[in-house]
Each structure stands twice: as C-alpha cells, then as structure tokens.
Design goal:
By secondary structure, this protein is an alpha+beta fold. It is 34% helix and 15% strand. It folds into two domains: 261 residues, D-Maltodextrin-Binding Protein, domain 2 (3-Layer(aba) Sandwich); 152 residues, D-Maltodextrin-Binding Protein, domain 2, CATH 3.40.190. InterPro entries: Bact_solute-bd_prot1, TAT_signal. This is Extracellular solute-binding protein. Belongs to the bacterial solute-binding protein 1 family.
Amino acid sequence: MTGPEIGGTSRRTFISLLGVGAAAAAGGATLTGCSDGGSGSSTTGRAETEDKLSGLLPKYIPYESVKPDLPGENGASPGFSHYPAELKRAVPDKMVPSGKEVSAMTPLWSPIPPLTGNSYFAANNERIGAPVKFNILNGNDYGDKLGPILAAGNIPELLCIPGWNISSLTRFGQAADKLFEDLTPHLAGDKVSAYPMLANLPTRAWAYGVWNSQLKAVPFPSDGFPWALFYRKDLLDQVGAEPPKTADDMLALGKQLTDAKAGRWAFGSVADEMARAFGAPAGWRKDSSGNLVHKIETPEYAESVAFVRGLFQAGYVHPDVVGNSADEKALFEGGKMLIRQDGLGGWNESLQRQLPINPKFNPQPALPFAHDGGTPITWGGDPAGIFTFVKKGVGKERVKELLGVLNYTAAPFGTEEYQLYNYGVEGKHYVKQPSGAPKLTALGQKEVSQTYIFLGGRPTAITQSEYPGYVQSLSAWQNAAAKVREKNLFDGIRVEQPAKMAALNQPFDDALQDILRGRKPLSELKTAVKQWQDNGGNEGRDFYAKVLSDNGR
C-alpha cells in the first residue's frame, strides 16, 4: 500500500474507508505455511502502473440511483443531505440460486450482534438467496488472527482483509496465489456486466485488487482520508474552549481540559495527527537532492514525537491510553477524554450509539491545521483500502454465486439493498423520521450491525442525514481537507512493498510507544530509526526509488 504507513499509534488508530471506522493494525506476521516458493511472491516487492493493469480490470459501467446535492471537490466524497422518497431495486434476482450457505469472515469494530435468531440477518439472507454464516472477529485483533489462519489455509469462501493488515503480512503474494481465486476470467472487461453493482466500482479501486498479475479481490473504495482529529464540541462549549489550530493550542487545551479529580483528560491517541500537523509526509518524500526519505526519518516527524511525548509527560493523556489498555471510543463517548484521532466513519457510528441516550452528544472534526499556524497538509491513501477474496478451488458456478453476494453488498446509497444491509426492515428495525431518514428501533439497535458492509465495497458517499448537520459538516471537512492533500509520489502506481518492510512496522511501533510514554528516552528514536533502516528500510528505499525511476518520476 502506498498510503499512510507506520505511525505513532498505528495499531490503535482508526481510519475511515467508505464511512466505516476501522482500527489500523500492524501485525508483521509471517505466512509460514505459504512460504515454500511459488511464483509472484511479493518478497522482493513489485509495482505496476494502473494503466498497465487495464486488461485485468472490470469495465466501469456507472449506476446512479440518486444524485448528490453536495458534490465532492478535489476527490472528496459526494454528500446526500436527505434520503430519497423512493428507493431503487438494484438487484432484482437472488444472487445464490443454489441456496447453499455462504461462509464469510469479517472484522467488526463494535459489539458483535446475535448470530442466531437475528431477523436482520434473515431479511438480508432472504434477498441474497442463501444464509451467510459470518465468522466475525474483533477488528482490533484482526491482523493478529489473520497470519495463522492464512498460514493454515483454513479460510472461508469469502474473506475480508483490510489493506493495512495486508501490508503487515510478509509473503502475502504467495498466500494470494495459493488460497484465493483468480477473478480475472469472471470480471475483466465486459464480463463484469453480469454484476452491475460491481461494475459501478471505480476502476482505480479495482487496480488495487491485483496481486501477481491476477485480479484477486473485490475492492472497498476509499475516500483516501485516514483519520481526523475529533473533539467533543458539546463539552468544549461548556468550558468556552475552541478546537485547536496550532500545536500551542493543543498544549493550552491539555491544561484547560484535563481535570484528573473529575476523571477527565484532554487527549487520547493523537500521534499520527500531530505528525501530519508538523508536516511529516504520509510515507516517502524526496529531499532537495532527489533522494527518498521516509516519514520517520524526517525532522518534522521527530518534532512531532517530542511534542506528543510532552503531552504524556504533562499528564494530559488519559491513563488508560498511557497504559495501552484504552477503549478509546468508550472513553471519548463517555466524556472521559475530549480529543482524539479516529477514522471519519467512527463519527456516525458514535452518533448511532450515543444520541439515543445523550441528545447533546456532538463530536466534530477539527479542520486540518499546521503546528505553527501555517498552511497544513493532509495525508492521502490508496483508492481502495479493504478487500474481499474468494476461496480458491470452489468451482466456476460457486464463484459466480459468491460474486453475486458481493454484487448485492455493493449496491449504493438510494437502493433498497443499501437500505436493507445498513438499516434492516422498515417498521421493524427502523422507522422513517419526518425527513425520510431512518431511525433504528430498539430491535434495530440490538440486531443491526455493519456486517454485510464488510463483504464488499460501494462508491464512497456521505449519507447519514438522520443525524442533523452531519452530512453538511463532514462534506465541508472533506472538501477543505482535499484542497491541501499532499501529492503522492506513487499516485497511479500499484505497489506491493517488499516483505522485509512489512515486518518493520511492529518493532518500530513498539519502540515508539515506549518513547512516547517515557519508558525510553527521546534519544532512542534515532536508534529505532537506525534499526528500521538496517533491517529492511534502506532496501525498501532502493526498491521504491527504482519504482519511481522506472516510471520517469
């Protein structure tokens, strides 16, 4: 992946991929069961421009169910400030005519819903034509579980793998060869027309589903924003505080908001956002001599680490975060910490949980700022960030059925299918508000979860108008952030990083956490960077430099 890589809290940070809050994980696991040779290994890394992959990719056939009233600018997602009066049925036929149960494994970053006797599952499965048997794993631990599962080869028919987990799995290319179906014969070019909702996914997203010159996965398109710095506006308003616009503002807020006796601290995880604010790049950049320099090697990154360490030392960070045992979502939603970074999708998820019990609950994203009040940058990501793979060897007809399931879950906003897999059945799991927006019932709160949504992506959109002001606020934030998004040196190039680089994330992050918390001196950052360089970072630099050279950059 060429988006944001290892960061200050990479295992604890939430990123946004099509409005879904997802925990960034760094596993560094080796797929030992898949390491005995095989062609197309990504051990040494590989890269291809997206246009050279065109022969493998599906033809783009747009499907528009409803027009947005808040167009996205500079790559930001379109916004829909109200729900359509009528929904289109996008998938008229049952996608699994055999009726055979489909096995699937997906992550989830919220409480796991009832897996039996769940009428929300039953309604979706009836439309699909077969029951989907989910193996749902905690998203925070997903990367740790994937390595052993892939090594053993014991995978379900549909397997969802976030890209940040893939980047931390060595020899993933070999695993993809051995375990996952080549979807090229089923989807390339006009063949995708058999699956109209999959044909509606952007071509650039499909390019990131290619491994070893084969289309191996259905992508989950991303808006490209890894996270934002969220603050509790409702609680900051109570003390007359404003969101930060500089690093000095962060320090002042730390002092103003932290009250240990009242059980309230200013900050949760903010290290990645502060690295961005200090001007560190998302991954690689070129120095004045044209040499590649990684984020962690830059003076801006070192400054950000020193700054965040200062927040810890001043006592402004919640003790559970200091102790690496924090459920940051619960602490933030409970008002125990007031500022933290999270994926954009975590916003609407928190509103769904909290507004029924706290109508004043109002988290907002701070506009991107530079540490010194100058022009900020924002980090971008790849056009796709989560992928769904089909088990190899299930047979041609079964592959068609499994792709049919993913065609169902790719139905976009404004369709009956989207409404059903997001909210369940009207009158049972949700009721319509006067605006037309859905509101979950008590049964919906219990049974509805983001499960089907992880079986495949759909075009990015900001849609949750059931929360007053949410669509407008997120649309404004994205449009502002997109204007200052840093240029990606590898834009348009599909890069599979060398295996050695995948194994570097965990050791560096472990050292970084100790430095931030004062368990190691700040001088140890240079040691951690040197170890990163010696253990594969320098080889990675050579690889990425060659990728740029080969592409005339």
